[in-house]
User: Fold these one by one.
Assistant:
Number 1:
Amino acid sequence: MTDLYFGGDYNPEQWPPEVWKDDVALMRQAGVNLVTLGVFAWSSLEPEPGRYEFGWLDQVMDLLHDGGVQVDLATPTASPPPWFSLRHPDALPVNASGVRLTHGSRDTYCACAPAYREAAAGIATALAERYAKHPALAMWHVHNEYGTSCHCDHAAAAFRRWLRGRYGDLDRLNAAWTTAFWSQGYADWEEIQPPRATQYLVNPTQALDFRRFWSDELLDAFREQKAILRSFTPDVPITTNFVFGGWVPVNQARWAAEVDLVAIDHYPGSADLGAEEQTAFGADLARGWAGGRSWLLMEQAAGAVNDGHRMHAKEPGRMTRHSLSHIARGSRGALFFQWRASRGGAEMFHSGMVPHVGADSRRFRELAEFGAMLPRLAELEGSEVEADVAILWDAEAWWALQATHLPSSDLDYLAAVQAAHRQFWAAGIGVDLVDPGADLSSYKLVVVPGLYLVSDQAAASIARYVEGGGHLLVTYFSGIVNEDAQIRLGGYPGAFSEVLGVRVEEFHPVAAVGLASGGRGRLWSEHVNLAGADAVDRYAGGVLDGMPAITRNAYGEGVAWYVSTQLEDEAYGALVGQVMQGSGVERIELPAGVEMVRRRAGESAWTVLINHGEVEAAVLVSGFELLSGTAVESPLKLAAGGQAVVRA
Ligand code: GLA
């Protein structure tokens, strides 16, 4: 049994040495066992090119080790020092409008610039040389939240190299990018540019390839550092913290194979129950990237989350509930940004484990209680999260759906996937978020929300899954384009028309639309023709009055459902209930507001229950409750805001 990790980003360079001893004492008090050190310490470690100052870090590493705290040592390459930018102006990033950014924030570099790559390798080598044998070193944390992109000439040259690798010759590129449209045909590779600011709509395939290129380019940059660190410490795990967002040009599902442990940062930006949903979604996604294995919540906020506009305070108990939700869904612990809230700098109002007021505070006490709770959960490590349902998730489909030419700018891939996830989350049904090309055979139900772009191989594998007896639910605006972001002709939803037994003629974006069943849809509707499927529900009113809205098709041994609008939650929940009926997915009675996750290892099973509601809830479960260390009988009474982990 291994201990779960508990701790966070530790930035001692922001504080005088007198504070460091207090820090370690407080960490011991709270039960902290792992800190991420030095993420943004480049200018403190290398104040001038090639002159290193490791004295302070030596001291901190020793102090932590003496205090029993392990170190996840970071390479500080997400924020080069001012001297670097001054010496290498060509390594400063250029945005799509051609503006070269200046030093003054963080992440201000172009990852394609040779000088940047060289400097990054230099500091990674120096750190590895110095600390390879340090007993506190437990993990390497490469960089921070890979996610920047740039449109400079270095990036243009690297983009062209990548395109040559993908397409081989220009004819193939011209065909894939449909450059015959608007006279964009390329006769020489040098003519190709990154998608910079232009007059009107951008070529969608060029924009999509640029995202793909950046994902691969950043991955190369990660690999360079990984190789250096590995050569010094073959046995120390290496990771980087994945950040999640529509702007991020990193395909985490593809990167996951390159890290020893998938790690994510998670900052739900919602004040209400949306934050709990987002937490569960982010955690399920991380587990998907990790291929079902355990992963690590590398960062979350100890207190208030700042969504860029305002802070959302975490009420008492909420930090514990979010952390437990992550752990229940496979995280090997809970870490935070950051240990001590900064007194200055751009993120001084970001909450810390030790808040501005000091350790004599509600927040610190809750953290210490949580730290004491964690060892009781160690037996969860190694067990698997149970999930009969898979929802497909694909970064490239998301990027493709961020294009500027779509039939509605309200089409939102993330929202479509989250809406699907929400239905199962609310019902306490385990869901894996998996890649469209994944082996689906172990799932009783597969949901494909808004998968605008899908490859032929993935579409074929989904069809085989249904043919073999699987149950499938596809939602509107799926299967529309191939990997080149070109329309699949012959009727939407192209890639899935046959398995769904429908042929869609036209799209009808709407504000809202009624259904014969009384349910409601919004945003979108489609002119659906039946081509083998049965209509389960029909549009009521409007231009599509009487036409099929929801369909069901028997295909091979399985069943494939299609819903051609964005159902409102109540109707969506009802549909999911209907779809699950024949699928064998087990449904349980769960009080509203209670989150449930089941884990299993051989004959042992655990049920994690978290009551996000404001009233006590009764759940039909019995066994040994790990947090209290007592036997519990059914029905288990779960206090408002309370949690339980029951071993059956
Ligand atoms: C991210 C970063 C941290 C910090 C936090 C809070 O996750 O990795 O450095 O900026 O967000 O904003």
Note: Residues 389-583 form a domain with the Rossmann fold fold (CATH 3.40.50.880).
Number 2:
Amino acid sequence: MIMKEQRIENFEKLGFGLFVHYGLYSLLEKGEWVYDQKPELRKEYSSLMNDFSAEKFDTDRLAQLAKKAGAKYIVLTLRHHDGFSLYDTKGLNCFDAPHSKAKRDIAKDFVESCNKYGIVPFFYHTTLDWYEESFHTDFKSYQKYLRKSIELLCTNYGKIGGFWFDGNWSKPDEDWEEDELYRLIRQYQPDAIIINNSGLHQRGKHGNEEIDSVTFERGRPEFHQNIGDGKYRAGEMCQTFNSHWGCASTDFSYKSVQTILRDLIECRRFSCNFLLNIGPLPDGSIRLIEQGMLEEIGNWIRIFGESIYDTAPCQIKCFEEDGFVLSKGDDYYLFVFDLWVNGDGNVSIGSGTYKEVRLQNISIDDYSIKWIDNGEQLKYSVIDNEIVVHATPFEYGSNYVVRVAKISKKEI
Ligand code: GLC
């Protein structure tokens, strides 16, 4: 088995994070790629700074909301592809929040609020830059500009959880001088996680050896830990509530709480972190539907949280469509999908139908198997070398989407 470096283990333990896309593009409410996708708006784009007040971008509330949702870290877009920085670039250019109507260093507030509420702050930083001239004309000097930007972030905000880079996929044949960039981070922030989003077309790929976690942007995670170079890497899948990352007011394609919960659970199946995105409104406040959904996810996590943090895949297998098993210490957690709701036959479909979940590769022993939500003891039988768990339906009045049972050996 390959060793996990401590910072990578710590990152994996966080399990669930909140992604926040906020910047000048939020003002146009047409997604974070609006500068690129709507050339007719480019001329006026930088003057959006005069309206960027971020008045309701309340970092304390953001950290509190993350906490309520059960997220342990927040990744904030401190600079996105449009080149506008939410942090003080200290004269690197004037295209930053302190020079906007907001007149403040949002990164500073962000880190302070995270620290206050026990949330780990992560910095999203673009590598692709539509605004910065040198990105298009002199790639080498652009790399210097990028490194100077990152050096500021490494040295001005105290300890941070990590960097989330994004954009190398835009020029796959260029020399991004990654070694130098990452050396800088290791020097100033030795415990910081380094992520560089491999994008929609290279999910699960890691590129540079310093990368600590691979990404599965809007995909399905899979086993990714052992790719043969001897380094254990974490994984993270980012997902957004609708079809954009930045605010898009006419995007109604919101996923359901059910879908999001399944995404979270599918990530944990592979020890992957789940990074769930919101795109605040122009003034920085959070769209009600996103707030509400986050709160519902938090409600699920309050009941079943012990099964998603700090648990790991194990040898016990069941049919993929039934669910899966994770372990923690001597205990196991059985995640069961697609149960019915119990109740009177005139109101509940499938009432009384339980599901048989066959567990393979489990030692035949005396187990206590209990639903976490109500402590109900589940019956099981031993057939050949398998244990068949009789998973009972949801109690009338509930439907947890995914239900989790704790399996412990009975004390003799
Ligand atoms: C993509 C997009 C970007 C978004 C990111 C989030 O790479 O370019 O807009 O920030 O995905 O994962």
Note: The first strand starts at residue 16 and ends at 20.
